[in-house]
Design a protein that fits this description.
By secondary structure, the chain is mainly alpha-helical. It contains 13 helices and 4 strands. The longest helix has 27 residues. About 3% of the residues have low confidence.
């Protein structure tokens, strides 16, 4: 068999997965199409956090803050009797998430290690309690979004996002776009610098790089992408609540990143689908869904430290490269005649 490099195997697997996802609305039932939409949104959310944890070495426990801010931005800008314009509300949600990430990142990055983790958690919980206690944001009941945004041109709708199939392909396009964006980012000089920061911050700073600026830029990009996921989730479910800002949401997406494999482009996608599908199946077997899923994540951490991405890479490597070639035993040197 022909041996394929790791890059070729990754491209082959990505093309196969994209083909399946593209055809899925025509072969899957309505329930599973809706489930896959939620899993793709979770994958975008997980990829945004992986940029911080896996590439920059910043463990944020308040990443849900940007997820929830985008959802509340959509809810605030959606009229009560008509859908909002996608061209208006999507940039507004991304800008709101980016501004929040800039402020929170600027203040949080003055610390490191456990201090950084606790400050990001504190900011997210502060926003959670603001939303939970504010009547303008619906309090603990949250806010209903009665209409999904629409894309119109001179009064004519171009995209009917109320159609589940159209919304599915919008989310799929966002997932592919985020994947390509992060792929370009981590292979650019910027990506090399943030990976160097993760390995040794002091040495990278000694080489002349302004590591604080690179970390802040990574934090803002990750927060903006988390806002994209929050916007899509709010538009999909038609509802946003303080739970979108809570530490539970941050912990869930962190578990997804660990399960899929940190520091990879496709690991968070694998983790999101594995986590969501396992959760969907387990809840039919037992009411202790969280316990079973938690034990599964723990087992994966112990048995496969590189996550599902590492397992898949090993399987593809063995399947596509064929059996190892046997080396011929060299002939013994002849003595003098």
């Amino acid at each position: 068999m022909i041996a394929l490099g790791s890059r070729a195997r990754a491209v082959l697997a990505a093309c196969a997965a994209l083909s399946v996802l593209t055809a899925f609305p025509w072969i899957g039932g309505e329930f599973y199409v809706d489930l896959v939409v939620r899993l793709m949104i979770l994958a975008i959310f997980a990829m945004s956090l992986d940029l911080l944890i896996g590439y920059t070495g910043l463990v944020s426990f308040g990443h849900a803050a940007f997820f929830g801010i985008a959802g509340y931005t959509l809810a605030s800008l959606t009229p009560a009797a008509a859908p909002a314009n996608l061209v208006v509300v999507l940039p507004a949600a991304l800008v709101a998430s980016a501004l929040a990430a800039t402020v929170i990142g600027y203040l949080s990055l003055r610390t490191a290690g456990v201090g950084f983790i606790m400050i990001t958690l504190a900011f997210a919980q502060m926003l959670y309690y603001v939303a939970n206690e504010s009547r303008a944001f619906g309090g603990s009941d949250g806010v209903l979004i009665l209409f999904r945004p629409e894309l119109t041109l001179q009064g004519r709708p171009l995209l009917d996002l109320e159609d589940p199939t159209v919304f599915y392909y919008l989310v799929l396009a966002c997932l592919a776009g985020v994947l390509l964006l992060l792929r370009s980012l981590v292979r650019a000089p910027f990506g090399r610098v943030i990976r160097a920061i993760r390995i040794d911050d002091r040495r990278t700073r000694a080489l002349g790089f302004a590591t604080g600026r690179y970390k802040l830029a990574s934090f803002v990009i990750a927060g903006t992408l988390a806002g994209l996921a929050g916007f899509l989730e709010a538009a999909h479910g038609g509802y946003v609540s303080p739970g979108a800002l809570s530490w539970h949401q941050s912990g869930l997406v962190m578990a997804v990143v660990i399960l899929g494999g940190m520091g990879t482009l496709y690991g968070p996608i694998l983790g999101a689908f594995a986590f969501g599908l396992l959760q969907d199946q387990v809840q039919d077997w037992t009411e202790h869904t969280g316990l079973v899923v938690g034990l599964f994540v723990i087992a994966m951490v112990l048995l496969a430290p590189r996550g599902l991405a590492g397992l898949l890479s090993g399987v593809l490597s063995g399947a596509l490269s064929g059996a190892p070639k046997t080396r011929e035993r060299p002939a013994a040197p002849r003595g003098p005649r």
